[in-house]
Amino acid sequence: xxxxxxxxxVPWPLExxxxxxxYHQLKNLSNNHEIILCAINDTTLHxxxxxxxxxxxxxxxxxxxxxxxxxxxxxxxxxxxxxxxVAYFTSSSVKRKIATLISEKKPxxxxxxxxxxxxxxxxxxxxxxxxxxxxxxxxxxxxxxGKVNILWRWVFKMEWKRLLNYEAAVSTDFDALTIISxxxxxxxxxxxxxxxxxxxxxxDTTFFTPMKSEKDYELLFNGNMNYPPNIESAIYLVKxxxxxxxxxxxxxxxxxxxxxxxxxxxxxxxxxxxxTGWVDDVRKSFxxxxxxxxxxxxxxxxxxxLLEAMxxxxxxxxxxxxxxxxxxxPDSQILVADTPEQFATHINLLLDxxxxxxxxxxxxxxxxHARFNWENTCAELETVILHAGEKK
Length: 392
Prior knowledge:
The chain is of the alpha/beta class. The protein has two domains: about 1-200 and about 375-385, Glycogen Phosphorylase B (Rossmann fold), CATH 3.40.50.2000; about 215-370, 3-Layer(aba) Sandwich (Rossmann fold). It contains 16 helices and 13 strands.
């Protein structure tokens, strides 16, 4: 079967969660199907991107959008009523090009990732279409309204209302819908969330494997460090949690690892805190650390950092919010905390009792291997895409 896939970013390199998800999904779908990738690109294309993606995509079409083009996209979106982050990626000229490609290639199915790419697919009703919401953008924006500068608050409120309306509207324009977790699905502003298929991420357990090496850092936080929820969490770790721990462990070391650290993250650097920026092999950050701490405050999607850390047998501590998506067993497979004091207590416990840290890591490792396998999750996605449009 010929599947035309539309993404709002080129899914390589894998420094962002949406790119990681798209990469593995398209790679696995290519085992049985011909993949035509249409990717919007708003940055400098990585020199190895097309080479890497050609390993499993029959065709790759990259549509570059310029800064000027983005400005006019946003201006158009401002008056059209669609969310600004959808407008950002929606170009009328790219829309025409993709429509022409669809007409020429006549794909059997269309698969669009994120609502950011929905405008390119929603009108092609002649072809069964699947939309992967992945995360609930409206909830993420809602949680940030009270945290932004008062001058920006009205923009966030407007965007939140638009996202609520848009997430509901596009649900009727696609033949099948997928999402990353049950928590996200239940928060989706649609009439019948139960009809949406939960397709979790997986983890590449042949790549992320336990490694024995010297630990340079007690604590690790990693991810795309220009992503607001990650920025917020890194600041929370260093400014709220770390001072409590340093009362007993003044020499404790923290590693903050990940691409494009924002200025607020760079400002966290100190004798005890290292900010690396992009690392060529993220496994080295896991390898050098004793505990992964993910104090996520506003991001509700499934955290890849937890899956990868568990696959490498690192004990993990996170919030109730994050674990609601992961559904690991608290105190057995993961530790859960929602206040700086709770995080500090858990961290001290694991550092003072290595045998407990090892037991937690072992249970998390087994859980990830049992539940988060890309082949299995992508097989579920394949079934959804193939049966899209069929009458129930």
